[in-house]
Batch of 3 targets.
Target 1
Amino acid sequence: MRAAQRFGKQLQRLRTGRSLTQEQLAVNVGLSRTFITRLELGQHDPTLSTLVRLAKALRVSVTDLLGESMSASLWWQVGEQRFATREEAEDHARPLGDMFIARYQNKPAGPVRRLFPVREKDAIGGRKK
């Protein structure tokens, strides 16, 4: 997955998590709704000033908006693909039929890997334990 597509998914996740429409976010940031759509689809790379404006409107850091960890000390992985959160990894793993996802954490002696079962989603879209 390209960086622009990963960014687009993160932007959409943050926007919908705050119950904002694309139109509402666009107005808050001073962009067009179609531009927000293109960003979310990974069809356009945002400029630095656009990243800063989006981060302010969503009340997150640019780092969080990019879905990156400052130290990259903790990440989730399915196959060769890395994810910032367990939920992202699970959402990727489910359609593949994977039963486990890996969490990696950087330690002084090197990365430590721990496997976690992929949690099922219940009927209303939440997570089962």
Target 2
Amino acid sequence: MKIEYNKTERRKILVIGVGGIGSYLVPLLHKSWCYDIHIADNDSVEVKNLLYQNYKQRDVGNLKVIGIKKLLQSTNHDFDIGLAESNTSRYQVLTSKQLEGYDLVICCADNLAVRKLLYSQGFGDNAKLKWLDLRAQGRNGALISYLTDEKFSETFLNGPEGSFSCQGDGFNTSLNTKDLHFTHVAIAGYGAQWIHRWFNGDDVSDKFIINI
């Protein structure tokens, strides 16, 4: 069986945050070989992350971008060498300049400041760049794109400043595995499907919200 890999028209994308959502989204997209993937995250892997993020014991204490780079080296492409060092950034995304030059910017970081920066790039035909916001918290998840009507932006940006976990308050308070949630994995799958279909020119939803 011969599989045709798209090696000539790879889309350049930036994934901000490779925690709960991003650590599953990036490998899904990487397998297709349709994307020149760049990742940005200044966080390190903690022991508790092993229960719901796509990391191994060897990654504890190391930067998440390094863990993802190691993960992608175990690939199903005989022509693939994984993620280039130049495609990983251990710095926070703080300015619009850092968003330039990509076909699509995907936010997987549960951080309000990053989302505000993304939304400030505009909506619809007036958007300075194309963006996708993937989020999860406990049983809830959402996909919000630049195609969304700008009138909803205030609602979607309503929340506490700073960072928070895709697990919500339950597991991070109890550290009991009975309180784990996996909605973030579903959102990673939805996000990968949206991205793949959008780049193919298919009709896609501007936004959707789930509760599992």
Target 3
Amino acid sequence: MIGACTDEVQIHKSALRYYSEGNEALKHRDYQIAIWNYQKAISLDSETPNFHYNLGLTYYEIGNYSESIDSFKRVESLVPNHYNLALAHHKMSNSRLADIYFNRYQDMLSLRKAQERLEAVRKEQETEAKIAEADSKRKELKKSSPSTSKKTSLKKKSKPGISEVPNWE
């Protein structure tokens, strides 16, 4: 079992190495080398969205929009990203599909914003609940502490033979 884990780790490391080399080739605009490296990375690890995404970007850069769409669809199946599909379809003059994916992208952004607002409201409610809880505890302490403080103030002992006269100066 341990051997299988280390094999998977080695495979993933090899895939990352190909991915890294693909990134370097892409930076230098050596698109064929980039494509080859990304494809090798994907052959070793087909579940990492970045491998497919960068392959799609490379195809997009060289104008091979149909291949970029295939790569972006794979990314979408792993992690939804409709924007790149919309761009590639637009470049291929598939305005209907470009509109569909762009609308999905807009919906995804709206959903993400709504989730962020919901999370902010939840955090605010949690904070308000903690403040209310702290206030109620403080009130409970005030209710119990005044009676004990009166008793202690009445029990003050004065020193024998010395009268306590207020100093009016």
